[in-house]
Protein backbone atom coordinates (compact mmCIF):
# COMPACT_ATOMS: atom_id res chain seq x y z
CA UNK A 1 0.00 0.00 0.00
CA UNK A 2 1.48 3.39 -1.00
CA UNK A 3 1.49 6.52 1.18
CA UNK A 4 -1.13 8.13 -1.12
CA UNK A 5 -3.62 5.36 -0.31
CA UNK A 6 -3.29 5.70 3.52
CA UNK A 7 -6.24 7.16 5.37
CA UNK A 8 -5.51 10.15 7.71
CA UNK A 9 -6.13 7.97 10.83
CA UNK A 10 -3.73 5.23 9.69
CA UNK A 11 -1.14 7.86 8.79
CA UNK A 12 -1.31 9.38 12.31
CA UNK A 13 -1.02 5.96 13.98
CA UNK A 14 2.04 5.04 11.95
CA UNK A 15 3.55 8.46 12.69
CA UNK A 16 3.12 7.99 16.45
CA UNK A 17 4.62 4.50 16.26
CA UNK A 18 7.66 5.98 14.53
CA UNK A 19 7.96 8.66 17.24
CA UNK A 20 7.84 6.03 20.05
CA UNK A 21 10.46 3.94 18.28
CA UNK A 22 12.74 6.95 17.93
CA UNK A 23 12.21 7.94 21.60
CA UNK A 24 12.94 4.36 22.72
CA UNK A 25 16.16 4.19 20.78
CA UNK A 26 17.26 7.58 22.13
CA UNK A 27 16.43 6.51 25.71
CA UNK A 28 18.58 3.39 25.37
CA UNK A 29 21.54 5.22 23.84
CA UNK A 30 21.45 8.72 25.45
CA UNK A 31 20.49 10.44 28.69
CA UNK A 32 16.99 11.64 29.60
CA UNK A 33 17.49 15.25 28.50
CA UNK A 34 18.61 14.31 25.00
CA UNK A 35 15.79 11.76 24.78
CA UNK A 36 13.24 14.46 25.68
CA UNK A 37 14.67 16.83 23.08
CA UNK A 38 14.65 14.14 20.43
CA UNK A 39 11.04 13.21 21.25
CA UNK A 40 9.96 16.83 20.91
CA UNK A 41 11.75 17.20 17.59
CA UNK A 42 10.17 13.97 16.30
CA UNK A 43 6.70 15.07 17.43
CA UNK A 44 7.12 18.51 15.82
CA UNK A 45 8.26 16.89 12.59
CA UNK A 46 5.25 14.55 12.66
CA UNK A 47 2.82 17.40 13.38
CA UNK A 48 4.33 19.54 10.61
CA UNK A 49 4.12 16.71 8.13
CA UNK A 50 0.52 15.98 9.11
CA UNK A 51 -0.41 19.67 8.68
CA UNK A 52 1.30 19.71 5.27
CA UNK A 53 -0.53 16.60 4.14
CA UNK A 54 -3.83 17.93 5.42
CA UNK A 55 -3.40 21.28 3.65
CA UNK A 56 -2.36 19.51 0.47
CA UNK A 57 -5.43 17.31 0.66
CA UNK A 58 -7.64 20.31 1.32
CA UNK A 59 -6.22 22.10 -1.74
CA UNK A 60 -6.78 19.02 -3.86
CA UNK A 61 -10.32 18.79 -2.56
CA UNK A 62 -10.95 22.48 -3.37
CA UNK A 63 -9.56 22.01 -6.88
CA UNK A 64 -11.69 18.92 -7.40
CA UNK A 65 -14.81 20.76 -6.26
CA UNK A 66 -13.97 23.71 -8.53
CA UNK A 67 -13.48 21.41 -11.50
CA UNK A 68 -16.73 19.65 -10.72
CA UNK A 69 -18.55 22.99 -10.41
CA UNK A 70 -17.09 24.24 -13.71
CA UNK A 71 -18.13 21.04 -15.44
CA UNK A 72 -21.66 21.36 -14.06
CA UNK A 73 -21.94 24.97 -15.24
CA UNK A 74 -20.57 24.03 -18.67
CA UNK A 75 -23.01 21.12 -18.97
CA UNK A 76 -25.92 23.34 -17.88
CA UNK A 77 -24.91 25.97 -20.44
CA UNK A 78 -24.81 23.37 -23.22
CA UNK A 79 -28.21 22.08 -22.13
CA UNK A 80 -29.65 25.62 -22.28
CA UNK A 81 -28.20 26.17 -25.75
CA UNK A 82 -29.62 22.88 -26.97
CA UNK A 83 -32.99 23.63 -25.41
CA UNK A 84 -33.05 27.00 -27.21
CA UNK A 85 -32.03 25.42 -30.51
CA UNK A 86 -34.70 22.75 -30.08
CA UNK A 87 -37.38 25.47 -30.06
CA UNK A 88 -36.25 26.95 -33.39
CA UNK A 89 -38.33 26.32 -36.54
CA UNK A 90 -35.06 25.95 -38.46
CA UNK A 91 -33.33 22.59 -38.46
CA UNK A 92 -29.85 22.52 -36.82
CA UNK A 93 -27.37 19.62 -37.12
CA UNK A 94 -23.97 19.71 -35.38
CA UNK A 95 -21.19 17.65 -37.00
CA UNK A 96 -17.88 16.99 -35.25
CA UNK A 97 -14.46 15.96 -36.55
CA UNK A 98 -14.81 13.10 -38.99
CA UNK A 99 -18.12 14.57 -40.24
CA UNK A 100 -20.17 12.52 -37.83
CA UNK A 101 -23.45 13.64 -36.26
CA UNK A 102 -23.06 14.95 -32.73
CA UNK A 103 -26.50 16.52 -32.18
CA UNK A 104 -29.60 17.77 -34.02
CA UNK A 105 -32.84 19.49 -33.04
CA UNK A 106 -36.41 18.19 -33.70
CA UNK A 107 -36.87 20.48 -36.73
CA UNK A 108 -33.83 18.91 -38.41
CA UNK A 109 -35.23 15.45 -37.73
CA UNK A 110 -38.46 16.48 -39.45
CA UNK A 111 -36.81 18.33 -42.36
CA UNK A 112 -34.00 15.89 -43.16
CA UNK A 113 -35.31 12.55 -41.95
CA UNK A 114 -32.77 12.30 -39.10
CA UNK A 115 -33.17 10.44 -35.82
CA UNK A 116 -30.69 11.50 -33.16
CA UNK A 117 -30.92 8.22 -31.26
CA UNK A 118 -30.21 6.33 -34.48
CA UNK A 119 -27.78 8.54 -36.40
CA UNK A 120 -25.61 10.03 -33.63
CA UNK A 121 -21.97 9.22 -34.38
CA UNK A 122 -22.68 8.31 -38.02
CA UNK A 123 -20.99 10.03 -40.98
CA UNK A 124 -23.17 12.37 -43.06
CA UNK A 125 -22.84 10.23 -46.22
CA UNK A 126 -24.55 7.43 -44.27
CA UNK A 127 -27.17 9.71 -42.72
CA UNK A 128 -28.47 11.63 -45.75
CA UNK A 129 -30.10 9.90 -48.72
CA UNK A 130 -30.12 13.03 -50.91
CA UNK A 131 -27.05 13.06 -53.22
CA UNK A 132 -27.29 16.85 -53.54
CA UNK A 133 -26.80 17.32 -49.78
CA UNK A 134 -23.90 14.84 -49.66
CA UNK A 135 -22.16 16.56 -52.59
CA UNK A 136 -22.65 19.99 -50.99
CA UNK A 137 -21.08 18.86 -47.70
CA UNK A 138 -18.24 16.95 -49.37
CA UNK A 139 -17.22 19.92 -51.54
CA UNK A 140 -16.92 22.13 -48.45
CA UNK A 141 -17.91 25.30 -50.33
CA UNK A 142 -20.52 26.78 -48.02
CA UNK A 143 -20.55 30.30 -49.51
CA UNK A 144 -24.03 29.79 -50.97
CA UNK A 145 -27.02 27.80 -49.67
CA UNK A 146 -28.76 25.17 -51.77
CA UNK A 147 -32.43 24.27 -52.27
CA UNK A 148 -33.40 20.66 -51.59
CA UNK A 149 -36.59 18.69 -51.12
CA UNK A 150 -37.65 18.02 -47.55
CA UNK A 151 -38.53 14.59 -46.18
CA UNK A 152 -41.98 16.12 -45.67
CA UNK A 153 -43.82 15.62 -48.94
CA UNK A 154 -44.28 18.82 -50.92
CA UNK A 155 -41.96 20.93 -48.76
CA UNK A 156 -38.84 22.80 -49.97
CA UNK A 157 -35.77 23.53 -47.83
CA UNK A 158 -32.97 26.07 -48.03
CA UNK A 159 -29.87 24.29 -46.72
CA UNK A 160 -26.72 26.08 -45.57
CA UNK A 161 -23.60 25.09 -43.62
CA UNK A 162 -21.34 27.09 -41.29
CA UNK A 163 -17.89 26.12 -40.04
CA UNK A 164 -17.99 26.57 -36.26
CA UNK A 165 -14.34 25.73 -35.45
CA UNK A 166 -11.58 23.37 -36.52
CA UNK A 167 -13.46 20.34 -35.30
CA UNK A 168 -17.13 21.23 -35.85
CA UNK A 169 -19.46 22.56 -38.52
CA UNK A 170 -23.20 23.23 -38.43
CA UNK A 171 -25.88 22.49 -41.05
CA UNK A 172 -29.02 24.66 -40.96
CA UNK A 173 -32.25 23.91 -42.86
CA UNK A 174 -35.10 26.39 -43.34
CA UNK A 175 -38.54 25.63 -44.77
CA UNK A 176 -39.13 28.04 -47.69
CA UNK A 177 -42.23 26.36 -49.13
CA UNK A 178 -44.50 29.27 -48.22
CA UNK A 179 -42.01 31.81 -49.52
CA UNK A 180 -41.78 30.02 -52.87
CA UNK A 181 -45.58 29.81 -53.03
CA UNK A 182 -45.87 33.57 -52.44
CA UNK A 183 -43.20 34.26 -55.09
CA UNK A 184 -45.11 32.10 -57.56
CA UNK A 185 -48.39 33.86 -56.73
CA UNK A 186 -46.72 37.24 -57.21
CA UNK A 187 -45.43 36.24 -60.65
CA UNK A 188 -48.82 34.84 -61.61
CA UNK A 189 -50.49 38.00 -60.34
CA UNK A 190 -48.34 40.26 -62.54
CA UNK A 191 -48.88 38.00 -65.54
CA UNK A 192 -52.66 37.87 -64.98
CA UNK A 193 -53.01 41.63 -64.52
CA UNK A 194 -51.02 42.21 -67.70
CA UNK A 195 -53.20 39.74 -69.57
CA UNK A 196 -56.46 41.17 -68.21
CA UNK A 197 -55.50 44.72 -69.20
CA UNK A 198 -54.01 43.82 -72.57
CA UNK A 199 -57.29 42.65 -74.14
CA UNK A 200 -59.41 45.78 -73.51
CA UNK A 201 -56.47 48.06 -74.32
CA UNK A 202 -55.96 46.24 -77.63
CA UNK A 203 -59.64 46.69 -78.53
CA UNK A 204 -59.67 50.38 -77.60
CA UNK A 205 -56.34 51.13 -79.31
CA UNK A 206 -57.40 49.29 -82.50
CA UNK A 207 -60.64 51.21 -82.86
CA UNK A 208 -58.95 54.53 -82.14
CA UNK A 209 -56.31 53.80 -84.80
CA UNK A 210 -59.06 53.14 -87.34
CA UNK A 211 -60.74 56.45 -86.51
CA UNK A 212 -57.48 58.42 -86.54
CA UNK A 213 -56.46 56.98 -89.91
CA UNK A 214 -59.59 58.61 -91.30
CA UNK A 215 -61.27 55.37 -92.28
CA UNK A 216 -64.88 56.12 -93.09
CA UNK A 217 -67.33 54.42 -90.79
CA UNK A 218 -71.07 54.61 -91.03
CA UNK A 219 -72.96 55.85 -88.01
CA UNK A 220 -74.12 52.40 -86.97
CA UNK A 221 -70.62 50.85 -87.07
CA UNK A 222 -69.14 53.85 -85.27
CA UNK A 223 -71.78 53.52 -82.55
CA UNK A 224 -71.02 49.80 -82.19
CA UNK A 225 -67.29 50.48 -81.91
CA UNK A 226 -67.80 53.24 -79.37
CA UNK A 227 -70.13 50.99 -77.37
CA UNK A 228 -67.54 48.19 -77.35
CA UNK A 229 -64.82 50.62 -76.28
CA UNK A 230 -67.05 51.81 -73.47
CA UNK A 231 -67.64 48.21 -72.32
CA UNK A 232 -63.92 47.48 -72.34
CA UNK A 233 -63.23 50.73 -70.47
CA UNK A 234 -65.79 49.77 -67.81
CA UNK A 235 -64.17 46.36 -67.58
CA UNK A 236 -60.75 47.93 -66.98
CA UNK A 237 -62.25 50.32 -64.45
CA UNK A 238 -63.85 47.42 -62.57
CA UNK A 239 -60.57 45.54 -62.62
CA UNK A 240 -58.63 48.52 -61.26
CA UNK A 241 -61.27 49.13 -58.57
CA UNK A 242 -61.12 45.49 -57.48
CA UNK A 243 -57.32 45.58 -57.43
CA UNK A 244 -57.39 48.68 -55.25
CA UNK A 245 -59.96 47.10 -52.91
CA UNK A 246 -57.94 43.91 -52.61
CA UNK A 247 -54.70 45.82 -52.02
CA UNK A 248 -56.38 47.96 -49.38
CA UNK A 249 -57.74 44.90 -47.58
CA UNK A 250 -54.41 43.07 -47.67
CA UNK A 251 -52.41 46.05 -46.44
CA UNK A 252 -54.71 47.00 -43.56
CA UNK A 253 -53.36 45.97 -40.21
CA UNK A 254 -56.05 44.56 -37.93
CA UNK A 255 -54.61 46.47 -34.96
CA UNK A 256 -54.93 49.75 -36.86
CA UNK A 257 -58.32 49.10 -38.42
CA UNK A 258 -61.34 51.24 -37.70
CA UNK A 259 -63.42 50.30 -34.66
CA UNK A 260 -66.23 47.82 -35.46
CA UNK A 261 -69.67 49.09 -36.31
CA UNK A 262 -73.09 47.54 -35.79
CA UNK A 263 -74.20 46.06 -39.11
CA UNK A 264 -77.96 45.58 -39.43
CA UNK A 265 -77.83 42.30 -41.33
CA UNK A 266 -81.61 41.78 -41.89
CA UNK A 267 -81.82 45.22 -43.53
CA UNK A 268 -78.58 44.68 -45.47
CA UNK A 269 -79.72 41.28 -46.78
CA UNK A 270 -83.07 42.70 -47.88
CA UNK A 271 -81.25 45.44 -49.79
CA UNK A 272 -78.92 42.90 -51.42
CA UNK A 273 -81.93 40.92 -52.63
CA UNK A 274 -83.25 44.05 -54.35
CA UNK A 275 -79.84 44.57 -55.98
CA UNK A 276 -79.90 40.96 -57.17
CA UNK A 277 -83.34 41.41 -58.73
CA UNK A 278 -82.19 44.56 -60.53
CA UNK A 279 -79.04 42.83 -61.80
CA UNK A 280 -80.97 39.76 -62.94
CA UNK A 281 -83.55 41.79 -64.91
CA UNK A 282 -86.11 39.04 -64.60
CA UNK A 283 -83.85 36.24 -65.84
CA UNK A 284 -83.91 34.41 -62.48
CA UNK A 285 -86.22 33.69 -59.60
CA UNK A 286 -84.70 35.33 -56.52
CA UNK A 287 -86.08 34.45 -53.08
CA UNK A 288 -85.21 36.00 -49.74
CA UNK A 289 -85.22 34.02 -46.49
CA UNK A 290 -84.47 36.15 -43.40
CA UNK A 291 -85.24 34.29 -40.17
CA UNK A 292 -82.58 35.83 -37.89
CA UNK A 293 -82.78 39.29 -36.34
CA UNK A 294 -79.17 39.41 -35.10
CA UNK A 295 -76.86 42.22 -36.17
CA UNK A 296 -73.09 41.76 -36.39
CA UNK A 297 -70.03 43.74 -35.36
CA UNK A 298 -67.78 44.62 -38.27
CA UNK A 299 -67.08 47.05 -41.07
CA UNK A 300 -70.34 47.91 -42.87
CA UNK A 301 -68.83 48.72 -46.27
CA UNK A 302 -66.59 45.65 -46.28
CA UNK A 303 -69.34 43.22 -45.29
CA UNK A 304 -71.77 44.70 -47.79
CA UNK A 305 -69.11 44.48 -50.54
CA UNK A 306 -68.41 40.82 -49.76
CA UNK A 307 -72.11 39.87 -49.65
CA UNK A 308 -72.81 41.78 -52.86
CA UNK A 309 -69.96 39.91 -54.56
CA UNK A 310 -71.61 36.61 -53.69
CA UNK A 311 -75.02 37.79 -54.96
CA UNK A 312 -73.49 39.18 -58.17
CA UNK A 313 -71.61 35.94 -58.87
CA UNK A 314 -74.80 33.92 -58.40
CA UNK A 315 -76.66 36.12 -60.90
CA UNK A 316 -73.80 36.06 -63.40
CA UNK A 317 -73.15 32.34 -63.40
CA UNK A 318 -76.66 30.94 -62.96
CA UNK A 319 -78.32 30.18 -66.32
CA UNK A 320 -81.48 32.02 -67.27
CA UNK A 321 -84.54 30.58 -65.55
CA UNK A 322 -82.49 29.46 -62.55
CA UNK A 323 -83.31 30.01 -58.87
CA UNK A 324 -81.27 32.01 -56.36
CA UNK A 325 -81.95 32.13 -52.64
CA UNK A 326 -80.45 34.82 -50.38
CA UNK A 327 -80.76 34.03 -46.67
CA UNK A 328 -79.80 35.13 -43.14
CA UNK A 329 -80.16 32.38 -40.51
CA UNK A 330 -79.24 31.84 -36.86
CA UNK A 331 -78.04 28.40 -35.73
CA UNK A 332 -78.86 27.82 -32.02
CA UNK A 333 -76.64 24.73 -31.83
CA UNK A 334 -73.34 26.59 -32.19
CA UNK A 335 -74.71 30.13 -31.72
CA UNK A 336 -73.58 31.26 -35.20
CA UNK A 337 -75.39 33.27 -37.86
CA UNK A 338 -74.99 32.62 -41.58
CA UNK A 339 -75.43 34.77 -44.68
CA UNK A 340 -75.84 32.42 -47.65
CA UNK A 341 -76.39 32.68 -51.39
CA UNK A 342 -77.65 29.44 -52.95
CA UNK A 343 -78.21 28.78 -56.65
CA UNK A 344 -79.15 25.81 -58.83
CA UNK A 345 -76.59 26.58 -61.52
CA UNK A 346 -74.00 24.32 -63.16
CA UNK A 347 -71.99 23.84 -59.95
CA UNK A 348 -68.24 23.56 -59.41
CA UNK A 349 -65.97 20.51 -59.34
CA UNK A 350 -64.54 19.61 -55.93
CA UNK A 351 -60.96 20.01 -57.18
CA UNK A 352 -61.61 23.64 -58.13
CA UNK A 353 -63.21 24.73 -54.83
CA UNK A 354 -59.96 25.20 -52.80
CA UNK A 355 -58.59 27.54 -55.49
CA UNK A 356 -61.65 29.72 -55.99
CA UNK A 357 -60.36 32.44 -53.64
CA UNK A 358 -57.05 32.77 -55.50
CA UNK A 359 -56.66 35.99 -57.43
CA UNK A 360 -57.69 35.61 -61.11
CA UNK A 361 -58.51 31.93 -60.73
CA UNK A 362 -61.43 31.01 -62.95
CA UNK A 363 -63.05 27.62 -63.48
CA UNK A 364 -64.02 28.60 -67.04
CA UNK A 365 -61.92 31.57 -68.14
CA UNK A 366 -63.71 32.36 -71.38
CA UNK A 367 -67.15 32.12 -69.76
CA UNK A 368 -66.05 34.31 -66.83
CA UNK A 369 -64.82 37.07 -69.10
CA UNK A 370 -68.05 36.98 -71.10
CA UNK A 371 -69.96 37.53 -67.84
CA UNK A 372 -67.80 40.52 -66.96
CA UNK A 373 -66.00 39.06 -63.95
CA UNK A 374 -62.55 40.31 -62.96
CA UNK A 375 -61.43 37.13 -61.20
CA UNK A 376 -60.90 39.02 -57.93
CA UNK A 377 -64.34 38.88 -56.33
CA UNK A 378 -63.86 35.80 -54.14
CA UNK A 379 -60.33 36.90 -53.19
CA UNK A 380 -61.90 40.11 -51.86
CA UNK A 381 -64.59 38.12 -50.02
CA UNK A 382 -61.92 35.94 -48.39
CA UNK A 383 -60.00 38.95 -47.06
CA UNK A 384 -63.18 40.64 -45.85
CA UNK A 385 -64.05 37.45 -43.97
CA UNK A 386 -60.61 37.37 -42.34
CA UNK A 387 -60.79 41.02 -41.28
CA UNK A 388 -64.33 40.70 -39.91
CA UNK A 389 -63.73 37.42 -38.05
CA UNK A 390 -66.14 35.32 -40.05
CA UNK A 391 -65.66 32.24 -42.20
CA UNK A 392 -66.22 31.79 -45.94
CA UNK A 393 -67.69 28.39 -46.78
CA UNK A 394 -68.21 27.01 -50.28
CA UNK A 395 -70.38 24.00 -51.06
CA UNK A 396 -71.00 22.90 -54.62
CA UNK A 397 -71.87 19.91 -56.74
CA UNK A 398 -71.65 19.84 -60.54
CA UNK A 399 -75.09 19.92 -62.11
CA UNK A 400 -76.87 20.81 -58.85
CA UNK A 401 -75.64 24.27 -57.94
CA UNK A 402 -73.56 26.05 -55.30
CA UNK A 403 -73.92 27.67 -51.88
CA UNK A 404 -71.56 30.44 -50.75
CA UNK A 405 -71.81 31.36 -47.07
CA UNK A 406 -70.34 33.80 -44.57
CA UNK A 407 -70.58 32.33 -41.06
CA UNK A 408 -70.36 34.81 -38.16
CA UNK A 409 -69.34 33.47 -34.70
CA UNK A 410 -71.35 34.15 -31.56
CA UNK A 411 -68.97 36.84 -30.26
CA UNK A 412 -69.61 38.91 -33.41
CA UNK A 413 -73.40 38.84 -33.01
CA UNK A 414 -75.68 41.39 -31.36
CA UNK A 415 -79.27 40.46 -30.51
Automatic annotation (TrEMBL):
A GO term, aspect molecular function: kinase activity
What superkingdom does the record give? Bacteria
CDD domains this protein is in?
A: HisKA
Report whether Electron transport shows up as a keyword of the record.
no
Outline the extent of the Histidine kinase domain: 192-412
Catalytic activity of the protein: ATP + protein L-histidine = ADP + protein N-phospho-L-histidine
Enumerate the Pfam families for this protein.
HATPase_c, HisKA, PAS_8
Where would you say this protein principally sits, based on its record? Answer: membrane
| Name of protein | Phosphate regulon sensor protein PhoR
Give the encoding gene's name. Answer: phoR
Amino acid sequence: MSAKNLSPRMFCVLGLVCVFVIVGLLFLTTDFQNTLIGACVALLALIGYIIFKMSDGWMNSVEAEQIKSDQSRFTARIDRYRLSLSALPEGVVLFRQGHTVEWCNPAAEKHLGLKLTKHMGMAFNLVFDNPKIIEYLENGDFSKPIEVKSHEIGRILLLSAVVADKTHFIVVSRDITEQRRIDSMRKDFVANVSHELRTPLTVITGFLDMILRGKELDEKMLHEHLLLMQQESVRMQNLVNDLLSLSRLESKDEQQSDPPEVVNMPKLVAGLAEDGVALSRGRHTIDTDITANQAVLGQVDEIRSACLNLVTNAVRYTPDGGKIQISWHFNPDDQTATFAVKDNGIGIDAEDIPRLTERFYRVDKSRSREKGGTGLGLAIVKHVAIRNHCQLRIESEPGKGSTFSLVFPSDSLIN
